[in-house]
Amino acid sequence: MSSLAWIIASSLAGGLLSVLAAAALTLTARSSWIPWLVSYAIGALLGAVFLETLPEAMAHGRSLQQVSGMVLLGIVVFFVLEKLVLWRHCHLEHCDAHDPVVVPGTRIRSGILILVGDTIHNFVDGILIAAAFLTNVHLGIVTAMAIIAHEIPQEAGDFLILLHSGLSKAKALLFNLLSSLAMLLGALIGYAALEGVRELVPPLLGFAAASMIYVAVADLIPDLHRTPDIRAGAVQVLLIALGIGSIWAVGELVGAHVH
Question: Coiled-coil region(s) at which residues (predicted)?
């Protein structure tokens, strides 16, 4: 398969499949299951950052200082975006950022904010998928896997908020599916822009690492701390380890067939 074919297939899978899986989980599973999905997603994100993305960025001849500087810049950018309520993604049914104010008409506005933030997030994820595949197929598959892993609990949380805002199940699913197409758009734009500008790949990988670190540390992990029970904590640690292990295992398997 060509790089473009991998990019299109992975961005469609990352967007559409994650939304459908999230909808199925939301409609059939209890909301108490979402933290377990979040735990796995944390491991997948951190595994992708430290086992794949950052090593690959430095392998392109960039110094540790340059790569770490881009990661630092990315974290600051995502902090600012979150302050503007454009990057915030909750993974539980109730949270301070998304709980609608009990005023007539404000619940729909809460749902709209969720969709706006999700669309922007999907668009950037598509660009990151393109950047990874233009580096090599191995990194692209691992990056797409990490994105799908964290998109499922994110989309499940967003789906719950859309239902809570007053949308029907059918409309919530439709709007989430439309939002997911932004990932394909971002991937195609990323492919067109990066194909002739390979020098941008290492800094974009650093930016990708920043996004994964920020989502895991600033958004996902605080959700887990809302459950202080020691037994639940032990399960969370095991699932985080499973997420890291899955990234390592896929990296080893894909690397053995690609290189």
Answer: none
